[in-house]
Each structure stands twice: as structure tokens, then as C-alpha cells.
TrEMBL record:
Its EC number is 3.6.5.2. It catalyses: GTP + H2O = GDP + phosphate + H(+). It comes from Arctia plantaginis (Wood tiger moth). It holds the Pfam family Ras. It is an enzyme of class 3 (hydrolase). GO terms for molecular function: G protein activity; GTP binding. Belongs to the small GTPase superfamily. Ras family. InterPro entries: P-loop_NTPase, Ras-related_GTPase, Small_GTPase. Keywords: Hydrolase. This is small monomeric GTPase.
Length: 209
């Protein structure tokens, strides 16, 4: 069975729910508060369409401020750009990120999804679903509204679709990946769940779509 590797970078404004969405997808759990101290790299193995992919998901934190955005963009094969439907500023930031991806990656060479998170907070909504849809059409990317707090279905659907597109692109465009000379991210999934969560830290999540 073929095994390939897909690198996913999760970008978005602080507090938009990047970690919550990623953790929901990987563990089906929602724990409410997540560490914001740095980037987290998760690894898991996923089987779909008769092949297995080694997926690395980089949950970024404050990368615009830390100046590592360009590195992240070079590193990834696929991108999830997250905003909060309750915060227009995060939507505008998502539009900027999509524009950056378009400028720095060859069009059509990376799988991209736009995620409007916190859809459970309808009373506080500042961004309509139609606006997310329009933005995604403008940049030719996928779009989902999700709620990491409410269910795992949206996050799972969105990530599965992103991985499918990334795998399809890898088959179509087997261009050599540009490696980063000195790229370091910490594999610290354990710190999110605390010292007793060895099952998450030691066992790499694996699922079949
Ligand atoms: N109501 C609601 N709250 C959410 C949802 N997703 C995340 N949150 C909350 O929003 C806050 C920020 O979530 P994080 O996942 O830490 O956001 P982040 O984008 O990773 O934040 P940084 O690491 O600071 O960039 C936390 O208090 C979460 O509990 C959601 O879908 N609904």
C-alpha cells in the first residue's frame, strides 16, 4: 500500500480556535483551553481511498508576530486558515493570509481550506456564512463553517476534504518539495493534555476515512 506524507499548516488569528479545531479532529475531544506558547506539531496516520498518508499538522501560534509565516508557508502542502465567525478582525486576517498564500505559492499547487470556527456562538456572530463562501470563491479554496466546541463532525469533514485534495495534488504535481534548512518545531502534544495523557502522546492517532 502506498504511503505518502502530507504537511498541513493551520493558520489564523490568535484565539480563533486553531488548536481547538485541530484537537477536535485528532482526538474528537474539546477541552476548552489550549496552550498558546508556541507551535505544535502533530503526527498521525490516515487511511483513505486505498492508501495511507502520514499526516503532519502544524498548529501555529502568533507566527505573524514571530516572523515565521514565510517558513510555514514553504513547509506546508496544505493549509487550513481559521477565523472566528464572532470576530470580523479575524476574518480580515484570514483574507490576508489567503492572499499571502496565493502570492507565495503557485496557484493550484497547494490545498487550502477556509474554516469559520465558533458557529455555535450565533448570538455573537459578526461574519455571515455567505461572506466566508464569497471569500473562498475569490481564492478558489474550500470553505466550511465549524464549531470545535459543539461537535467533531465539521472539523473531521473539513480535514478529510483538505487531505483528499492535498493527496490528489501530490499525485498530479510530484514537484520536489522545498525543504527548510533549519526548521524546528516542538512535538509537545502531551502538554496540551497534561502529564497523564500518555495515550495521546505515545500512540499516534490513526483513522480511516
Ligand atoms: N464557543 C466556542 N469557543 C471556542 C471554539 N473553538 C475554540 N473556542 C475557544 O476559543 C478560545 C481560543 O481557542 P484556541 O483553540 O486556543 O485558539 P487558537 O487560535 O489556537 O489561539 P492561539 O494559540 O492563541 O493562536 C478558547 O477559549 C476556546 O475554548 C468554538 O468552536 N466555540
Amino acid at each position: 500500500m502506498t504511503v505518502n506524507r502530507i504537511r498541513v499548516v493551520v493558520l489564523g488569528s490568535p484565539r480563533s480556535g486553531k488548536s481547538a479545531v485541530v484537537v477536535r479532529y485528532l482526538t474528537k475531544r474539546y477541552i476548552g483551553e489550549y496552550s498558546s506558547t508556541g507551535d505544535f506539531l502533530y503526527q498521525h496516520r490516515v487511511a483513505f481511498d486505498g492508501a495511507v498518508s502520514e499526516v503532519e499538522i502544524l498548529d501555529t501560534s502568533n507566527c505573524a508576530i514571530r516572523g515565521c509565516l514565510a517558513e510555514h508557508v514553504r513547509w506546508g502542502d496544505a493549509f487550513a486558515v481559521v477565523y472566528s465567525v464572532c470576530e470580523r478582525r479575524s476574518f480580515l486576517a484570514a483574507a490576508e493570509l489567503l492572499s499571502l498564500l496565493e502570492r507565495t505559492r503557485l496557484p493550484g499547487c497547494a490545498a487550502v481550506t477556509l474554516l469559520g470556527n465558533k458557529r455555535d456562538l450565533e448570538h455573537a456572530r459578526e461574519v455571515h456564512a455567505e461572506e466566508g463562501q464569497e471569500l473562498s470563491l475569490r481564492f478558489g479554496c474550500q470553505f466550511y463553517e465549524v464549531s470545535a466546541a459543539e461537535s467533531c463532525a465539521g472539523a473531521a469533514l473539513a480535514f478529510h476534504a483538505l487531505l483528499r485534495e492535498a493527496r490528489a495534488l501530490a499525485l498530479l504535481l510530484p514537484a520536489p518539495r522545498r525543504k527548510l534548512a533549519a526548521y524546528s518545531v516542538s512535538k509537545v502534544i502531551g502538554t496540551i493534555f497534561g502529564k497523564n495523557s500518555k495515550s495521546v502522546r505515545k500512540k499516534r492517532p490513526s483513522l480511516s476515512i
